[in-house]
Design goal:
Four copies of one chain form a homotetramer. Chain A is an alpha/beta fold. Chain A has a domain at about 45-165 and about 175-305: TIM Barrel (Alpha-Beta Barrel). Chain A has helices at about 60-65, 80, 85-95, 95-110, 115-125, 135-150, 175-180, 195-205, 220-225, 230-250, 265-270, 280-285, 320-325, 335-350, 355; strands at about 10, 20, 25, 35-40, 40-45, 45-50, 70-75, 130-135, 155-160, 165, 185-190, 210, 255-260, 275-280, 295, 310-315, 360-365. An eight-stranded parallel barrel of chain A has the order 6-7-8-9-11-12-13-14, surrounded by five helices. Chain A has a two-stranded antiparallel sheet with strand order 2-17. A two-stranded antiparallel sheet of chain A has the order 4-5. In chain A, helix 6 (about 135-150) links the parallel strand 8 and strand 9 (about 155-160). In chain A, helix 5 (about 115-125) packs across helix 6. Chain A is globular. The termini of chain A are far apart. At the A-D interface, strand 2, strand 3, helix 10, helix 11 and helix 14 of A face strand 1, strand 10, helix 8 and helix 9 of D.
Chain lengths: ~375, ~375, ~375, ~375
Amino acid sequence: MEVPELKKLRRAYGFDEVAIVPGSVTVNPDQTNVSLQIDEFEFPIPFMASSLDAVVSPEFAISLGRMGGLAVLNLEGIYTRHEDAESIIKEVTEASQEEATPLLQRIYSAPIRENLIGDRIESIKNGGVCCAISLTPANTKKLAPIAVEAGADILFIQSTVTTARHISKSEKGLNIADICSNVKIPVVVGNTVTYQATLELMETGVHGVLVGVGPGAICTTREVEGIGVPQVTATLDCAAARQEYYKRTGRYVPIITDGGMRTGGDICKAIASGADGVMLGTTFAQAEEAPGLGYNWGMASFHPALPRGTRIHVGSKGSLKQILFGPTSMTDGTQNLEGALKAAMGMCGAMDIAEMQKTDLVIAPAIKTEGKYFQLAGRW
Amino acid sequence: MEVPELKKLRRAYGFDEVAIVPGSVTVNPDQTNVSLQIDEFEFPIPFMASSLDAVVSPEFAISLGRMGGLAVLNLEGIYTRHEDAESIIKEVTEASQEEATPLLQRIYSAPIRENLIGDRIESIKNGGVCCAISLTPANTKKLAPIAVEAGADILFIQSTVTTARHISKSEKGLNIADICSNVKIPVVVGNTVTYQATLELMETGVHGVLVGVGPGAICTTREVEGIGVPQVTATLDCAAARQEYYKRTGRYVPIITDGGMRTGGDICKAIASGADGVMLGTTFAQAEEAPGLGYNWGMASFHPALPRGTRIHVGSKGSLKQILFGPTSMTDGTQNLEGALKAAMGMCGAMDIAEMQKTDLVIAPAIKTEGKYFQLAGRW
Amino acid sequence: MEVPELKKLRRAYGFDEVAIVPGSVTVNPDQTNVSLQIDEFEFPIPFMASSLDAVVSPEFAISLGRMGGLAVLNLEGIYTRHEDAESIIKEVTEASQEEATPLLQRIYSAPIRENLIGDRIESIKNGGVCCAISLTPANTKKLAPIAVEAGADILFIQSTVTTARHISKSEKGLNIADICSNVKIPVVVGNTVTYQATLELMETGVHGVLVGVGPGAICTTREVEGIGVPQVTATLDCAAARQEYYKRTGRYVPIITDGGMRTGGDICKAIASGADGVMLGTTFAQAEEAPGLGYNWGMASFHPALPRGTRIHVGSKGSLKQILFGPTSMTDGTQNLEGALKAAMGMCGAMDIAEMQKTDLVIAPAIKTEGKYFQLAGRW
Amino acid sequence: MEVPELKKLRRAYGFDEVAIVPGSVTVNPDQTNVSLQIDEFEFPIPFMASSLDAVVSPEFAISLGRMGGLAVLNLEGIYTRHEDAESIIKEVTEASQEEATPLLQRIYSAPIRENLIGDRIESIKNGGVCCAISLTPANTKKLAPIAVEAGADILFIQSTVTTARHISKSEKGLNIADICSNVKIPVVVGNTVTYQATLELMETGVHGVLVGVGPGAICTTREVEGIGVPQVTATLDCAAARQEYYKRTGRYVPIITDGGMRTGGDICKAIASGADGVMLGTTFAQAEEAPGLGYNWGMASFHPALPRGTRIHVGSKGSLKQILFGPTSMTDGTQNLEGALKAAMGMCGAMDIAEMQKTDLVIAPAIKTEGKYFQLAGRW
């Protein structure tokens, strides 16, 4: 007897399961262009720093901005709840593992101070770089005008899963289209992983979409709630939505793959899957300039009822400059990210990100062999 | 030369191999409804406790019932063989690992005392909750009437694999249709994993079907006998049978995924695969209220000729209330199960279980990465 | 550009990758029949012991024969090269790991003594059981008549890969059809793994075919030569050849899955893949009655130019009776193999091996989970 | 809603994921022919040594050449930069792991001395064997004529990814067709992994193509840049290009699978995937005759901005003769490579490499089992 199929289960892929196929044309890496454009802003390198308190301080935002990238400041975290953010972070990093979660809960229960919103934005603007800030949907209507007033250049609206249609009885749901019309700055929203949701978000008028829900293999969102789509498939699907939306409207809305990338190789694969740029957390938390002093924690780590994730020691891997541009002595793909991307684009004959998005991918699981045989890592 | 295909090998999936795709609509978790209905009984939460002696005592059944779930008492175990069940269980938990199996064999060789059946059921009923009890097919004809007489509300008939057509020479096989007609209470049967067997069981008139044979990856039924279907595929197939049966008859028979779930994520995936509810063993064995004092054992652990499984230390993870509703400090998905389910339903825009059953799944194996990189566990 | 496909790569499956689907009918295990027939010989249990010197001595052959199975004596090993085989084997088991290979090389360089062939066969026949012996193709023409003369009942002709068409310049290849006509006893040949080779072997008139080349996951034939087909697919393909040959000729030639099975579950899967019986090495080497005293070694372990495998300590797991029929305290599927097979057949509603061969299989990789969660091993 | 597919993801396979299917005909291994032809040169064994400084010295090239293989000398490494190469290599092997990379950087920053090119080639020619040398595209136009003048027999042009169409602003890209016309010796180029690129390279007139980019599972090119195609699929695709080019032109251009092979089994699989020969690094670095004294390093290990790989201890596994022809006591497939290939060809009924290329492959992942059960490694 034939079993009727209740639903179609599509295979989804993550970074560890694919590899980029080199091209039939190669190009000198020096001639490749890796810039990213969000509305009127152009960034020489397509690397963004996640709006995490251990990653992006105003000082970090200035450093990354001057090197060509974009850091997003969390407007609902330590920097807007505490005057002396540095001491607070030091306290977090010095707490024992057991004390860390309750301490974070205490720290994040302090109220957001509107004057600090202005101060932090001003600091970044004074550094002469583009200022991007992040809000949750629940606080956007109230705090976005204050941030815009203070000079913010790009508004990120972020929650675990964001859709254009949110049903809520207790509060009137955030209307993203209204926000896009009302604020005078570009709006980037996320996160999402599906074709349909991306298409609908683009139709609200946003200027960028963040891709990634539960991306990592050990991500606790997948353990706690079972939700998540691996990043290669998520990026491919959202990029398909971007293409469809562009075809319909002529407006190009970049997508940013957010989370789950650990190496230059993963970043190259995100681009090859259709991303216009990538957003990195741990990678930047490991920079000497990161405020977290070698630690990192997510914004759900201290949720009182359903915490997901905890404070983690990530260590320090080098200066921001080394991480972005090398030179490096690390051979594991965690440094010289721009060099890695340009080298990969060279091997694929891709002159810019748009061409790199068209490169072939194969499914090629990274089987770990136990023997420590020498493997040629390319020549010259 | 083309090789003729002797049989079709279909790919089957387990919890670790799939993930739930968030929706294009999201809903506030507070507005979701997770209730489960079995015949006339409605349970506010769709979580059942397995009929294991280390999990369900009359006291535990009352606690879980008051919190909205349903515990099933094993009528062929310690509680109906021994007056002082508590001391017996204490003895089991204090035995060395070597002594445990012979001790269990001795304990379970005591005769079932019919007066204890009445006593245990009465205790549960006195707690003011629905009383579910479990019997094997071999004992159902004899003991079910006694249980009904004593006030049991729901009868579970369970064996490793139960079908509507059982061939036996030595005894006249149990006719499930007859039982359903004769007992005046709803009947839930299991376990099964296939479309055909589920359809046939529903045709006998049962009010619920338990899904799961050899579900876990390390389940010894798969080692000892090679039998088993991973739970996602098993649930999908049995749910397809439920839909077909409903279409034909207009009677909706819920299916309960039983076994193999370790986290809130697994539970969400079972529902997304089509389950109306789930049955949990270890999860509840880890409650402070569980009679097993941090231990658990299966009902095949002491089979004299072909034992499968043994006494296992599962530890204590918190109160039943914490496990079901939080708040929790555990970030591994083993607590606040209702919260996790409602959060997942929110991200999928599902207002109730029936809508959650329609959500998309992707095949996305949980590849364990060795690096301890920080992974964002969702935001806010 | 579309890439032309040079060859079709078919997916092949091993025991760890499949599971048996329970049926819509169940049957009482006591009513199942697991007998195996080879030509006129009928064996109550379908378990054969491999022709390895550490597994099958004449005494072991008698023991297994009396319990209903069949052991195959290696006619080119220690028993026919050395009068006092017991002392020789003791020496092997007492050698250090470094000494073992040179010692084996020395022991196996002694000449085969024709008088010992007669003696060993006579011993087995005196035990009142069917006597099966094994030869390589190179020695068959010379030694088979001696063995038949001495009273052997079944002749096994075995090499790593055996085909009906062997090309050789130095010697006139063995003509299997001639052998089948000339010897007056049934001939079983192997090993093979393909549809085509099995069909051609059956056309030579053999009475059984052994299935399995490089079956195990860690088998060195796959490491050394890259050759091998996982056993589930190999068995399915060879069973398809058996069906085709039966359809054409009306003669039923049983196939025996040989190697790679570690548990009762694996044996059940071999049968469900189409095997009529199974041949086991390690399982029987672990019997108290096995001559190897807890050790085992393959017949390629001492090949001077290209050794594959070595002497391995397998330990002692219980009496032959326990391994075959229980009762057992082992919960890992290595004991009570008949009980496991009958239980599995019961869950599949299979009255005999022929019906069990028709049961459904699903592809269900055995993912090892790291958490030690309790898993229900079936009930009652 | 159906999701439009942005790009097709093809599944690619590596050595660990396939196995060779034995044939319906078998042949005596002694009768097989494993020779490889490159233009007018014929090599009795199809094994080449990689142009790595720790593998190929002039002395090693002579040894391997006399045994029937071909070693490729790196013309841009230690042997052409330093008179006393032996001392330099000794220094590398004696450095601590921390000192190794800076030391290599220093050693490889010395200029290439044209007189040493002549000396090294002369040494090899004096050994009476075919002399193959390797250059990068950037240095080919300048140094190839010198090498040819000095008597080199075959020119290898190698970079991580080589295509017939390279775009470069700063330098006029190497025109491979011109080189092929101008040098009077056969040209082998690489590396490549795709059908299209191989076809285009063959159209330039080359006499051989090296297949392999980022082949190994732990290859850092995949980590750093995400680039790579597993070797079985890469070889199949490039072999398809060779067949297509042969069909169009009648000229047969051999392809050499380069990298990722650790055992005789892997080598057999490369041939079965369509390779005419294989290029080995680690395997030969482990020979007693290798100049690296038990160490090996890649030519990208000391790249200042984006190093990939490092100095690795590979140990010494035996003489070159043992590795190639045995006899051996190693049972892991790392010795007697010719014996392994001939044995495999025997089991597949392949008389020569061309027939072995046609053998069937199955997809059969090498699942590692944790139990240490004995596995029969073939018989006799």
